[in-house]
């Protein structure tokens, strides 16, 4: 046991090679915890085969963490039965991570009832992420009252995800003060989507400089933490309040954030990035982003791509994109199609697109479409 303690001390100091030597000595003497610890050292060094050998040795002697590690190893390989066997061995050895992992395994197989049982077992034993997962499962089936105490238990134990989920729960009930408190707790612990929610609430409730600066702070945290929506909203905020690139410094910061969101598939960011490119006459880049947005279902992307193509002399292709936009509910696209039809003398089709444009709006489009429809009607009856 002295060798095990010395190995643990050396590992905490970062002297892993020397720690491994002492763990090996203790493991060869039959100390299961040393064999388990050696397995984790070998795994971290990339020696999975060596790790598996020592974990098996430790697990056979009743070491729960080693059995759980073997379960995870087999789960990654897709060997579910072996994973389940070792997770069960971990549970029998008193490792609550085994219960949690059995729940995850069951949930992944669609066995919700079994997943709930294992989540409960781990949660009652104090596993905070199991408590959070149990609450999510309960919430998904409509039991918000049952979910709340488990979210609270997990959050109080330090689960950042549970703090965020409590924010969602309270926001859904209209309890904004409580929601903000939990979002803030999660955001301060680094949760990107919680930071986004705080920013959204600030921008909704106030328009002063102080609120805007604080919202920008939270949006930066969200964006830098990987929130795609956070990156988009940060870009919108920076663009709206006049942030611009210095001469010779490349694109403005807001454009860089649009690009990050666009590259992650955010359609509105793709459209905005296309508009930025079009504004500096970079037609190729603008067309690329409009097309990407349009093909992903953005009606604004389809409309703007149509405008770009029409300016470049490709009116037939522009009409195809305007049709797609109009069929998705874009009033200006419908008006463009009406104008095209009327120019080529197809008065009936022009009137039909006028009616559609009037239905879709906005008000300025409705007014123009009504005037055009009246003119077309007069032509038809002339």
Automatic annotation (TrEMBL):
| Record-linked InterPro entries | Sel1-like, Sel1_AlgK, TPR-4, TPR-like_helical_dom_sf
Native source species:
Streptomyces triticirhizae
Highest lineage ranks of the organism? Bacteria, Bacillati, Actinomycetota, Actinomycetes, Kitasatosporales
Report the superkingdom from the record: Bacteria
According to UniProt, the name of this protein is Sel1 repeat family protein
Cited Pfam families: Sel1 (PF08238), TPR_4 (PF07721)
User: A single Gene Ontology molecular function, please?
Assistant: identical protein binding
SMART domains documented for this protein: SEL1
């Amino acid at each position: 046991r002295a060798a095990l303690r010395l190995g643990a001390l050396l590992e905490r100091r970062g002297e892993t090679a020397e720690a491994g030597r002492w763990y090996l000595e203790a493991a060869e003497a039959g100390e299961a915890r040393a064999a388990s610890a050696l397995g984790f050292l070998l795994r971290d060094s990339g020696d999975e085969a060596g790790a598996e050998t020592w974990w098996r040795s430790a697990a056979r002697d009743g070491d729960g963490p080693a059995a759980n590690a073997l379960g995870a190893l087999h789960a990654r390989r897709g060997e579910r039965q072996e994973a389940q066997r070792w997770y069960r061995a971990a549970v029998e050895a008193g490792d609550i991570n085994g219960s949690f992992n059995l729940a995850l395994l069951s949930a992944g197989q669609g066995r919700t009832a079994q997943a709930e049982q294992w989540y409960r077992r781990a949660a009652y034993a104090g596993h905070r992420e199991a408590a959070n997962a149990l609450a999510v499962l309960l919430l998904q089936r409509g039991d918000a009252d049952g979910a709340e105490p488990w979210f609270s238990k997990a959050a109080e134990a330090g689960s950042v995800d549970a703090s965020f989920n409590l924010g969602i729960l309270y926001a859904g009930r209209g309890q904004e003060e409580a929601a903000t408190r939990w979002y803030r707790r999660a955001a301060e612990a680094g949760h990107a989507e919680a930071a986004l929610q705080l920013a959204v609430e600030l921008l909704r409730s106030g328009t002063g400089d102080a609120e805007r600066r604080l919202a920008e702070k939270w949006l930066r945290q969200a964006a830098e933490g990987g929130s795609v929506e956070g990156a988009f909203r940060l870009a919108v905020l920076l663009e709206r309040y006049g942030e611009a690139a210095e001469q010779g410094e490349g694109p403005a910061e807001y454009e860089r954030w649009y690009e990050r969101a666009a590259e992650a598939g955010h359609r509105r960011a793709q459209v905005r990035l296309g508009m930025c490119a079009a504004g500096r006459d970079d037609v190729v880049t603008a067309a690329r982003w409009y097309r990407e947005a349009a093909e992903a279902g953005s009606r604004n992307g389809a409309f703007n791509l149509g405008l770009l193509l029409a300016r470049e002399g490709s009116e037939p292709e522009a009409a195809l994109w305007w049709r797609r936009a109009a069929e998705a509910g874009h009033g200006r696209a419908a008006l463009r199609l009406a104008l095209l039809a009327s120019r080529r003398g197809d008065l009936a089709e022009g009137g039909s697109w006028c009616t559609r444009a009037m239905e879709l709006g906005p008000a300025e489009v409705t007014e123009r479409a009504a005037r055009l429809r009246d003119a077309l009607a007069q032509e038809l009856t002339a």
